Amino acid sequence: MRCTKPVLQPLPKIFNACYMITSLPIPEPLPPDLHQQTKPVQLLQGLQVLQLCADAEFLNHWEHLYQHCPWATVFQSPAFACTWYRHYHTAYQPILVLATQDEQLTGLLALAQDKRGNLVAAGASQAEYQVWLSSEEHAESFINEALTTLRQAFPHQDIHLEYVPAGTPLAWAQDPNGWGAYCISKTARQPLMRLDQEKIAKELKKKNRREKINRLKRAGNLSFEKITTGHTFRNVLDELAVQSDFRKGAMYNKCVFQEDPNRKTFLQDLFRQGLLHATLLKVDQHIVASNVGVIGNNWLHLQGLNTHSPFFAKHSPGILHFLMLSSMLAEEGMAVFDLTPGANPYKDLLATDYTEATTLTIYSEKRLRKAKLKYKVNTILKQQLPKIGLEKHTIGGYKQQAQMLKEKALILQKTGAAPLLQLARQSIQAPYKYKHYALPLPPAAAASPVELQRDSLADLLRYTPGNSLTCRWEFLMEAMKRFELGQHCYTWTANDRLLGWAWLADAKALQAEGIPGAAILENGVALHSVQVPSSAAAALSDFIRAVAAEAGKDSPSQACLFISQNRQQEKALLQLGASKLRQV
């Protein structure tokens, strides 16, 4: 047991009616004289759930059940679930299934229904582990009764629980004569890092770790900091969100903070309640890596927010941060750094132990047959495809290409045929050969209508395809690779839109991209991949002039080298008085 049993007052009396909600303030606590429920298992929805989340007596019972449930994680705590309900009740209808006995809470399943009708665990994708709570003696009886109650209320909806934690009683899910007939489950390996200060110290002293740490120290003052105040957390959260969206947008096409307006305030609320452990790795004032994880039961879960800056990627700041964080956690007396399920190489590098979590879906009768057929086909493909040379990483590449094509199809849906017509025009014209120009730097005092930012990830996240078939995923992926090669980017935005961008690269970076001109640069740098959308094409000359002025500030030369990649750029450069160096 994880705590001594507190003295509990009888449960508050619960409404039997169900309410749907749209947008509500935090409700007042339930009056103590409401009538008592009579059903052993009861389904509550909407306003009813929010009212219980504001009732101190009910929360006391929920906390007691959570503390005494052997398989519970922090994501089932009333603090986490009720906080999520408060921030997301306009996007998800709260649902609670409760069981009581002798005025005590003996079972609880916290769910929510999204706008499409899907039933998910409270917390949705932000709850790493998803499971019901019950006393040990009601371990299987509660979930069977809860599912029966849910099926009556939602006969056509599936119930999905992502990563049911190890140790949860799941024999019922294999019973073909019960709910097991409707279940499909898959196990996932869950890497854990048991926190041993001595082993962590040895890992940090390894030659390759020391070299990377020393390189970061040469770049500036290296510091590892824990965020302890809400004020500091609020101040850095915007930057962490941008770093996270940029990296995950490039890798997985997911910009969760950009797409979820509630996420920041939700995290701030969790931090205020002590449910988050937040750390930063900094070089001077630059955040090079960070982790904001959910803590509970002496574990830190790698769920919440973890980032690293693309400008320091060659020094592996992410893995260094995790090792420094592990050392801090060991000093603080934490037992386990839960690296969470997921096929990431760095997790296997850090893991000292493994357990298993289970993805569990309880299907409606309507969708059961199709789901089982799909599961069987996928299982056969996974077994047979490697035999013909299609390994997992190859299949992953094909999936990514398919997703890219889907993104391009969505662009065509929104913009019509304009991108295709542009491609057709380009294919008719003779292929353009890169040309190199020296553009005289404008006078230092010259005014420009274009305001630029250098290396702004936030600006790049404002990219929209316009008349281009380059989707956001491709754009961010290319940008991340260029930053990791040491390139710099100048951006121009207005009214929250990205209007122009240009890249500054040295000879080595140009060579890596296959852009000719490395030989002409010697030890210098050149601007390339200058773009403005068709809506801002008239301002191309202004943009090029402004970029040249910024790029030339730290250069002893009186001219800026440009690599033109289309006829529009060449025309603009000539209008600005650029001289052609040589054709490559």
UniProtKB/TrEMBL annotation:
InterPro entries: Acyl_CoA_acyltransferase (IPR016181), BioF2-like_GNAT_dom (IPR038740). Residues 206-347 form the BioF2-like acetyltransferase domain. Pfam families: Acetyltransf_6. Keywords: Transferase. GO terms for molecular function: transferase activity. The keyword Repeat does not apply. This is GNAT family N-acetyltransferase. It comes from Pontibacter mangrovi.
